[in-house]
Amino acid sequence: MKMNGGAIEADLLLNCTDMSVLERQRAHLKYLNPGFDSPLAGFFSGSSVIDGGVIDGFLGTDGLNLPMIYGENTVEGDPRLSISPETMTGTRNFKKRKFDTETKDCDGKKKMMMNRHEEEVEEEEKSKITEQNNGSTKSIKKMKNKAKKEENSCSNDSSKVTKELQKTDYIHVRARRGQATDSHSIAERVRREKISERMKFLQDLVPGCDKITGKAGMLDEIINYVQSLQRQIEFLSMKLAVVNPRPDFDIDDIFAKEVASTPMTVVPSPEMVNSGYSHEMVNSGYSNEMASSGYLHFNPMQQVDTTTSDPLSCFNNGQAPSMWDSHVQNLYGSL
Amino acid sequence: MASSDKTINTDVPEKDVFAIHFLQSLSNLTTQNPFNSPDTTNYRARKIKKAAYVSMAKAAGGSSRLWSRALLGRAAKENNKIVRFARRKRKVTWKISSKRRSDQRAPEATDRLRNLVPGGGTMETSKLMEETAHYIKCLSMQVKVMQCLVDGLSPK
Description:
Strand order of the largest sheet of chain A: 1-2
Strand content of chain B: under 5%
Radius of gyration of chain B: 18 Å
Mean pLDDT of chain A: 53
Largest interface: A-B, 61 and 67 residues
Number of strands of chain B: 0
Oligomer: heterodimer
Helix content of chain A: 40-55%
Low-confidence stretches of chain A: 1-6, 38-167, 248-324
Strand content of chain A: under 5%
Structural class of chain B: mainly alpha
Structural class of chain A: mainly alpha
Largest sheet of chain B: none
Number of helices of chain A: 11
Low-confidence stretches of chain B: 1-5
Shape of chain B: globular
Order of helices and strands of chain A: HHHHHHHEEHHHEEH
Order of helices and strands of chain B: HHHHHH
Number of strands of chain A: 4
Largest sheet of chain A: 2 strands, antiparallel
Distance between the termini of chain A: 85 Å
Number of helices of chain B: 6
């Protein structure tokens, strides 16, 4: 097919479905910029002419996917592009800068990753083709997730005005300047950002991690900290095993007694300060098995005089009570 | 003592919840074994450690955290009990399949972390980080409780 400068012919050419990809592109470029010689020159100015109506016109009803390839290496890009000539209703996409393929989804709920940064053209001439046709459902899901995060506009009807261009019917994700722009890398980036956000959170948690930067070092520190905590637990359990002379106290018994004697109150009241133990249903919801027994209210201001208060009278047999007292006093003291 | 993050919820219950659970499990231990038992210190220590972990998992919100469910499941398996939690809706993640593929790598930091945190084998990395944060908080709480106990029990 001869490439003329005429817009109408280009229109016709574009509407032909048996054109090759390259020809379609050339036709489109010609349409946009009649003096088409160099692919890059004047492209942006030319394309800015297009508005919604025009595009509807020359794209016709068959809904072509036009992978736009800008830059000199247009030719090589083609064989890798996968053009799916199925018809689509609704979204049509133009890729202005990268040569990404555009996926089509027959039921029109596809979203496209478009990147509209002028600067990227000069910087990135890489030929990154996304296998979007293959992973279309996957990328759709990812893109749907990203859509919430990255202010995508999902417009099947209205046109979205970008910085330079006025186009219709596409979703774009703001890829940042100087970064890769296909959907997979954007998804990767989102995931990486999630991970780094959590790493920052962990950094606050683990003591002594302010100076360390970098994921690997941080992870090592975190691992060391977790290991040290686990070792501490082991060591303390060993100590408990040594120290603990198997006291004969029965906690369930105490709880049962106290539940029976004192009424369950939900609101902590000042009277409880005077009594040795007080029970209340702690509205924590953390454990269900405690629902039947009362909770000890660990009030640090309480003066625990456990030997004299009634609920603990069951303890007064053997050395166990003293152990228990000291348990409790310690817990009170340190809480 | 609970701290909250805007996007990640890593609230941990107060210390007394941990204390109560631990004391309960300890008393269960003592009531289980008769007092004339020839237990070595090691044996008792191991039992106490298991009790500590189980009580920590229960205190930290038994089934609302992946690591606690994994811990409790593991402990129940050791006792030959079957414990089943209500199946929570899992988001379909794409990461899991890729993790299985790359098992041949040298164990790197995230893998080591997975080994440390219970239930970490099949989590996404971001989820792993969340669980690690919560796990760390609970561990430190448990350590404090146990330290108090030891201090209280040790002869003055």
